[in-house]
Give the backbone structure.
Amino acid sequence: MNTLKKVAAASALVGAVALVPVMSVAQSSKIVKIDGSSTVFPITERVAEGFQKANKAVKVTVGVSGTGGGFKKFCAGETDVANASRPIKDSEKKLCAEKGIKYVELAVALDALTVVVNKKNTAVSNLTTAELKKMWAPEAQGKVTTWNQVRAGLPKGKMRLFGPGADSGTFDYFTEEINGKAGSSRKDYTASEDDNTLVRGVENDANGIGYFGYAYYLAHKDKLKAVSINGVQPSDDNVLNGKYKPLSRPLYIYVSQKAAKKAEVRSFVEYYLSNAGGIVDKVGYVPYKAASYQQTLGKFKTFK
């Protein structure tokens, strides 16, 4: 089964080939609990496969509640690691502090948040950030419903919008960068924290348009068309050279201090950061340079 298709499951217990040798951390069964972003899920799920192959006594569960939902569980002490497609919010920091949850933030990849239309849509190849705002702003609700209302000369057909739900870090990031405030968005669109649902929505609707992580576009590019933003296509090069603005972003994992004291969690995170570069590239996101991962690994090793 394709990695991205597994996101719909509430959690994944996975096992496959390890990428580098690691020492088995325990002989008895132990669990590493992870939840959060559907964007980061494919990376963490692939890491979990390799780690479990080398550490058969450890199970890694990877759930998908969206970044916001993941932080709720993380700050309640229900999980060891949170996947996040945006930095932790002040309100979430406060919640963690109230529960006594201390943590470390670790950047694991770069993403080109991708706006897509149906492959059959030949009219829309480029949109400006101003046009995206015109399409997605709260005041567009019930008013901006056809393509030609976004830009004169586009077809008169009705747009059908697909986007992440309110618990999604992608939703927060997109709305802040495009609409000027996180969470500020029209509500008359098909929303889901599961990116596969959004992919299927646009794939099956000639007038569909949506946005999600770059890896999900790459996995379905035979049926989707990536829209250039301000004339710049989403790509590894355009993320690394800084041209794909404002929709390029870091992706993170957060590890709690309490969890980091457990051998199985510490070993998992060290494996994650030691193998992230190759895994990120295979999954479809943009890896950092090797030196950056070494620096992040050093940051984690000194976190106690």
In short: The two ends are 38 Å apart (CA to CA).
